[in-house]
């Protein structure tokens, strides 16, 4: 299997685990230490610095605790793999449970996979829309 194929296999497993809400599988896919980047946003409870596999996987559970699950959506427009790196472009939307306000916008996600585990997770999203939805 080529490096790119191995990367795609791991990233596909990551998306499947996220879709299934399988935190144990997500945790197993992250390396022990992860280069995590998601711009800090003090008004968004699920956006914070993370470093370990468990902390990274917990982001999904925290997100689902704060949004209306039936309204949470993410679609992928482009999925590129080059060696150990995968870049995904898409659109996400949801409704914050505490405020009833919606958010939406494009996203870009850069993942790096080494030895079958995700070592880099950099997410770029419409943080302004998300922050506004979290503010009463």
Automatic annotation (TrEMBL):
Domain SnoaL-like: 11-121
Alphabetized GO MF terms: isomerase activity
Keywords linked to the UniProt accession: Isomerase
Name of the protein in its database record: Ketosteroid isomerase
Native species: Nocardia colli
């Amino acid at each position: 299997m080529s490096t790119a194929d191995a990367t795609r296999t791991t990233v596909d497993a990551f998306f499947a685990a996220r879709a299934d809400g399988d935190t144990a599988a997500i945790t197993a896919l992250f390396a022990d230490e992860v280069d995590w980047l998601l711009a800090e946003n003090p008004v968004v409870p699920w956006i914070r610095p993370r470093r370990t596999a468990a902390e990274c996987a917990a982001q999904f559970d925290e997100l689902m605790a704060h949004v209306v699950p039936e309204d949470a959506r993410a679609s992928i427009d482009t999925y590129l793999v080059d060696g150990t790196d995968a870049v995904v472009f898409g659109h996400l939307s949801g409704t914050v449970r505490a405020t009833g306000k919606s958010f939406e916008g494009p996203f870009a996600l850069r993942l790096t996979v080494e030895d079958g585990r995700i070592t880099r997770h950099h997410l770029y999203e419409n943080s302004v829309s998300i922050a506004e939805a979290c503010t009463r």
